[in-house]
Write a structure and sequence with these properties.
150 residues, alpha+beta, 5-stranded antiparallel β-sheet, 3-stranded antiparallel β-sheet, 4 helices, 32% helix
Length: 150
């Protein structure tokens, strides 16, 4: 992780606190062998979060939090952005969601979509004041997996 903190100068305390929290939960950061700087946090085959950095886009946080039933509008809108940016890949109408594990989004016109749980939600560079909520969401997700959830 030293290379991350040597490279990324914005939100350093945010990423340091989040790294410490994820490691406290038992997730180990592993650098991906890519052109961009990417660290994926994984425990027992479960990937819960990813820090990515590119010269073009800067730093970004990606995470899974589908085990949570409630979250602020920031996260709700990031689910929509994730669905739209992938042209609704890995989505379905809620009636067709067999597993029931994933993210739900309802558009203002009434359409309801389901994004399957395998996808991390890209948060970009979240506002620092959301750190507590991010940690809470990650803790619930981790507890879901610890109790045997998919």
């Amino acid at each position: 992780m030293h290379i991350w903190f040597d490279t990324v100068s914005v939100h350093q305390e945010f990423f340091k606190e989040l790294t410490a929290f994820l490691m406290h939960l038992g997730y180990q950061p592993k650098q991906s062998p890519t052109k961009d700087l990417i660290f994926v946090f994984q425990k027992k085959g479960k990937k819960i979060a990813k820090f990515s950095y590119s010269l073009r886009y800067g730093p970004s946080l990606h995470m899974k939090f589908y085990a949570n039933r409630t979250y602020s509008s920031f996260f709700h809108e990031k689910i929509r952005e994730t669905m739209e940016s992938s042209s609704f890949k890995y989505t379905g109408m809620i009636q067709g969601a067999i597993e029931g594990l994933g993210y739900r989004y309802q558009f203002s016109d009434g359409r309801k979509y389901f994004l399957f749980h395998r996808e991390m939600i890209e948060l970009g560079l979240p506002p620092v004041h959301l750190l507590k909520e991010i940690k809470d969401l990650l803790q619930v997700q981790d507890a879901h997996w610890t109790l045997g959830g998919q």
